């Protein structure tokens, strides 16, 4: 897991640099899901750049599209596109917009950025796979604030009605949404029990515990599976951790340097 | 029209294993035959339209050809953003079929009256917008929409509508209107539900010695530009008729096209519903009469315009 920890730190470092360079917000959200994305792309997903269009691949949908810098970083490091291209993030004509666009780069299937879409689309893919006898998994990463959207629960009800055991969702439960505590803006808790009552297999873990992430995401299931990942917004950088100002704040050059040092990247 | 839709779906699904039918918990018994033959390719998605649209997009991304069916109002208004983003933005081959278009379900009240559906669907870039005038147009439109591999909205009526075409339409093309009658004094361009009424109006006018042409504009997006060119070039009045609010439908689409292409927009007269909710219990026939969209109402409006 040590090498995976290093990968996650590198993804964080890239997300921080991109936020600074392109002056884009949502850094805290990108940092909270870095371990989840590292686990998926380095240990779980049966896919790869050479199979970006292969119908028989595992699929991943970043439903919380505002955290795309971490996904871009992972895709670049996995060879979906040149790492140097990350420098074009959010520039005029770039293939890497602030929220993922349809097929903007290989490895991005779905444009997200409007919350509450990814689980329904992932559910559709899972049903299509079943119809076409494709035995592959679909992973959808949601944010906790995203669970405000009714469409998430529409999808949750239909997925369990069809016992879609290849559909996995991970909730990056970083405890904040744009302007408040996610458990206070709406009655989000008990989130794991909610998914369980909706007919899903569930598990709640420390979303920064790479070992647990890999174990839970890999395990075969008999029903759709929801992994509630308790995370810290801004994870990995002490001045950003659990401080919701970093939903919108842009790091200074000095803050970038300090953050990278703290992540062991300097 | 809905029976024709169900039957055509059953046939098309037999020919193409990628076709799937998603229903928003409507069509009780309507799809029995389809389900009997293609049970694994039928999904009742429940009363959850936003999720149904997202699912359809996911299925299209995974190589299937989804057809989504529910009442036009619930299909186009509730999940508008899913249609815009998941289907439109991704340019996915999903066919949305709205049953009960226009005033088909008038007596169910404003919740069920689809009078802005064409307007909102044609606002989505790349969305083909069709409105079937009879059961034959339903069949041909559905087939063409699926074959096009493009995002498409197909508005249909309910059941028991009169047939205008006498046989299957073999050369149906999206964006190519069907000319049913040529006229010397004016041209009627009608879309969807009102096709039979417009045909009756043509007969009424003819009995008064007024010869008007009749063209079924089953496609609102894209419009039949070449036919419009020739009709505007004739210099005769053009009447766009639709069971839809005046804002945003066929008439508006033609008006925009005419203005963009430097035609005399004064030739165009829009015969449509007023831009207001109907606060009166009325069935489809009664609602049409209130809105002057009955055959007589249409004929009178045209006659008044021609002889002010």
3D structure, described in words:
The complex is a heterodimer of chains A (about 270) and B (about 300). Chain A has about 270 residues and is an alpha/beta fold. Chain A has one domain: Rossmann fold. In chain A, a hairpin with a 2-residue loop joins strand 4 and strand 5. The longest helix of chain A is centred in the first third of the chain and has 21 residues. The relative contact order of chain A is 0.18. Chain B has 2 domains: about 150 residues, Rossmann fold (3-Layer(aba) Sandwich); about 130 residues, Rossmann fold. In chain B, the strands form 2 sheets. A 7-stranded mixed sheet of chain B has the order 2-1-3-4-6-5-10, sandwiched between helices. In chain B, strands 7-9-8-11-12 form a 5-stranded mixed sheet, sandwiched between helices. At the A-B interface, helix 5 and helix 6 of A face helix 3 and helix 5 of B.
Task: Break the fold down into its secondary structure elements and pairings.
The complex is a heterodimer of chains A (266) and B (308).
Chain A: H1 2-22, H2 27-32, H3 34-44, E1 59-62, H4 68-77, H5 118-131, E2 138-143, H6 150-161, E3 167-173, E4 176-177, E5 180-181, H7 182-185, H8 191-197, E6 201-206, H9 210-218, E7 225-230, H10 253-262
Parallel strand pairs in A: 1-2, 2-3, 3-7, 6-7
Antiparallel strand pairs in A: 4-5
Helix pairs in contact in A: 1-3, 1-4, 1-10, 3-4, 3-9, 5-6
Chain B: H1 2-15, E1 19-23, H2 32-38, E2 42-44, H3 49-61, E3 65-71, H4 72-76, H5 80-89, E4 95-99, H6 117-122, E5 128-131, H7 135-148, E6 152-155, E7 178-181, E8 186-191, H8 195-207, E9 212-216, E10 219-221, H9 225-233, E11 238-245, H10 250-260, E12 268-273, H11 284-290, H12 295-306
Parallel strand pairs in B: 1-2, 1-3, 3-4, 4-6, 5-6, 8-9, 8-11, 11-12
Antiparallel strand pairs in B: 5-10, 7-9
Helix pairs in contact in B: 1-2, 1-7, 3-5, 8-12
